[in-house]
Amino acid sequence: MGDIKKLKKSYERPKKPWEKDRIIHEKELMKKYGYLNKKEIWHFNALLRGFRQQAREIFGSDSPQKKKEGENLLKKLFTIGLLDEKATFDDVLGLSIEDISKRRLISLVLSKGLARTPKQARQFISHKHILVNKKKVSSPNYIVLRADDNLIEFADNSVFKNPLHPLISEINAISKDASKIAQENIIKQLKKGNDESAEKKSDAPKKEDKKNDKPKKGDKK
After folding, report:
1. pTM of the predicted structure, to 2 decimals
2. Each residue of 78-131: pLDDT tens digit?
3. SS3 for 82?
4. Opening angle at CA 199, ends 193 and 202, nearest 5
5. So where are the chain's domains?
């Protein structure tokens, strides 16, 4: 038997470890999207760099093989929900860590209202309470396919499948309150817009009646 193959790292450490702006940005990402550590962020940054490099190589070549690779790349990025169907290589170069963070399972569980916080969503996934297309997924960093966006739910044997569970009822109450607040804000904005338009109409100079401009019979010309 040969030597055991040493696995390569799936990420690259920053060249400037004490860069202030990058550190602040990474802390915000960890808080907003529920990253466990900075290595997870570096992993997705390395993945995006690979997509960009591949797009540059394909864009700068005229060979039919590269064209096929380009079509496959765009199709792949559309399948995982990073790009639209009519996207170009410029869109690939414009992808950011925010875009791919939104496609992680932990982010979609949170957006679906199945958890209150990113930390709670990570816990549900790690403990195998979440199904994606009828399959249990225990990786919070799993990239959800576009076709599976509406197929995320609690497992049948999960205690959280019961809507009467105290935690689930609390999550539902919070989501209802949030939707009510959003609806109230929309109504306020609409009323504000209607009031402003009414004020503009009232302030506008009224057109004089054309009939008043006509001289009367007794008036001299």
Report:
1. 0.70
2. 999 999 988 888 999 999 999 999 999 999 999 988 888 899 899 999 999 999
3. coil
4. 145
5. 9-103, 104-158, 162-200
